[in-house]
Design a protein that fits this description.
- The chain is mainly alpha-helical and about 200 residues long.
- Helices cover about 65% and strands about 0% of the residues.
- The two termini are about 25 Å apart.
Length: about 200
């Protein structure tokens, strides 16, 4: 036990509130900005199909919010990964079992993958449906993004199916991620959650 305490002391950012070290300020901002964007994008994405088609302008607001937030997640995630490579987070402390490390790492990297793949699927799907991010659904309401492909309804339906399933997968990964954080904080009473606060 003495050895694990000694190891914990050398983790970056270790103090009374962060016994297991902590992420840097920029990494924390990336994490919480992503959370806010996902809290906007996921629920809107799941309810769009239930919004009445008329008046169409109302439905377009939901599409506009979902698409702009989704594309922003792509940009933020790429920047976040570049930052992470240049500024690696402190390793998990030695008191966390190997199976838990593997589970945490798997969920983290699958989330990163989902946050890159999902916006790309959504963006190409809108193009394939013939509704590129222009006009009413311009990026952030201001920036028209050129179409990257011609309308293709067959491809659009395939992309829609993939986009839906990846969306549910991201939601499931988020549940696992949050459950893991709560488990560490409330049951194991270690400093894992505090690493990101």
């Amino acid at each position: 036990h003495g050895m694990s305490v000694a190891t914990a002391r050398v983790l970056a950012g270790t103090d009374a509130a962060h016994p297991d070290g902590q992420y840097g300020t920029v990494a924390k901002w990336f994490h919480w900005v992503t959370l806010v964007l996902m809290a906007l994008t996921l629920p809107v994405g799941f309810v769009i199909k239930y919004i009445a088609d008329e008046p169409f302008a109302t439905k377009m607001v939901f599409y506009a919010v979902h698409e702009s937030a989704g594309l922003t997640i792509l940009f933020v995630t790429i920047a976040r990964l570049v930052w992470r490579i240049a500024n690696p987070p402190p390793p998990l402390p030695e008191h966390i079992p190997a199976q838990m490390r593997l589970a945490a790492s798997t969920v983290h990297w699958l989330l990163y993958l989902g946050l890159i793949v999902q916006p790309i699927l959504g963006f190409t799907m809108t193009n394939a449906f013939g509704f590129p991010m222009q006009g009413a659904t311009a990026y952030l309401g201001l920036i028209d993004i050129p179409a990257i492909m011609a309308e293709n309804q067959g491809l659009a339906e395939t992309l829609k199916t993939l986009h839906t399933w990846v969306g549910y997968s991201i939601a499931a990964l988020l549940v696992a991620h949050i459950a893991g954080a709560v488990y560490h904080h409330a049951l194991r009473r270690d400093g894992t959650l505090m690493r990101m606060l």
